[in-house]
Fold Diacylglycerol kinase.
Amino acid sequence: MRVRKSRCRPQRGFDLLRLWRATINTRNGLAFAIRSEQAVREELLALALSVPLAWLVGASVMRRVELVAAVAFVLVVEILNTAIEKLADRLTTDHDPQIGRVKDMGSAAVGVALLMSGAFWLFAIAERIGAF
């Protein structure tokens, strides 16, 4: 009778290599987004500013984390929107109404994320000044 090695055993060396490659891909994607999109650069600046501002505005540690996370969420949606736009532009440079609608939906997602983030910040400011 032949004994087979279990394939369920974790292979730590390969896991670390996969993690390293994923980290490099993340860095490359973020660097490309920063180079190619003004909106990504602006939202990174907003994220950097949100950290000290959250300490001034947030009434609790949890509220401060929520405020920074709301701005980070806008950045995430913007990066996804950028990916959609770059992919659509790669498919065709001609004007295509369906691709235009897809790009519009990506922009709408960014707009909704911005509104959500703005609402979080407005509520936190109102909470800080004692309106609630």
Q: What stands out?
A: The first helix runs from residue 12 to 36. The chain has a mean pLDDT of 92. The CA atoms of residues 17 and 92 lie 36 Å apart.
